[in-house]
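Protein: Mechanosensitive ion channel family protein
Species: Brevibacillus ruminantium
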Amino acid sequence: MKEELVKQGNWLEMLYEKTFDYVSDPEMWLRIGLTLLQIILIVFLSKIVVTIVKAAVNRIFQHRQGSKLQMEQRRVDTLRVLVNNVTSYAIYFLAILLILQQLGVDLRPVLVSAGVLGLAVGFGAQSLVRDVITGFFIIFEDQFAVGDFVTINNMTGTVQEIGLRITRIRSWTGEVHIFPNGTITHVTNFSLHNTLAVVDVSVPYEEDLGRMERIIMETMKQAQANVEEIVGEPQFLGVQALGPSEVTMRLTVECKPNTHHGVSRKLRAMIRQELSRQGIEIPYPRVVTMTGRGFDQGKKQAES
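Structure follows.
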């Protein structure tokens, strides 16, 4: 029993001596300090490089009027965001490899394992591969771009970001919707071509339709000269509907992409002001009430 205790005490003493020698080794702490310093330096430099590259990319894709190579601003913004994302991923991936190298990890087996692992992930994560492929075709085919007003899968908003994996849009009320590119099945883009503003004007039956048409068209000519969003000649389509107390007249005007709602509001306000200036009232329901003797006479006349 005493011999076992002696052996155990010798073993603990040897372990303590080895631990103390290892901890008190100045070269070991120097190596650890240099390694930590190099890792911190790699992280710091990678962030600086990412910042510089993003600034350079933003400057390259800056839209300049009068340049020989002209591109739509929407495509410029889309490519700028995409290039920034790809370069950031590449720089950070390289930084991770350098950190592993500083930790003493042999990169050759890691790269080989990463290739095999990437192949396995490619078979397993088919949805991720589909998102990337779909994102590539969205950008290549110019289906929509950053800044476009679109409806994606029944969600409407302005495109904030298009990546190889996800698309981000922001609705006019502030909500941000994120779609994996592989789930995008239906897209309506309102920013590619000019839109049509449709305005219906209700007038009383007592007013002359020819006079109303002249007043409305004169107002539209003033709007065409003052509203910069209007790009086409206003078209008066005529009587659209006959209501219980009003005649509805319709007119249309071509305007810049995604400005038809604002143009319609401006046109309604201008028409309303012009009708008030001309002394024309907005139609409203009229009710005739007949009582007593007048009611009996009206009934007899109707029967006869």
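Remarks: The chain has three domains: 2-63+70-105, 134-189, 195-277.
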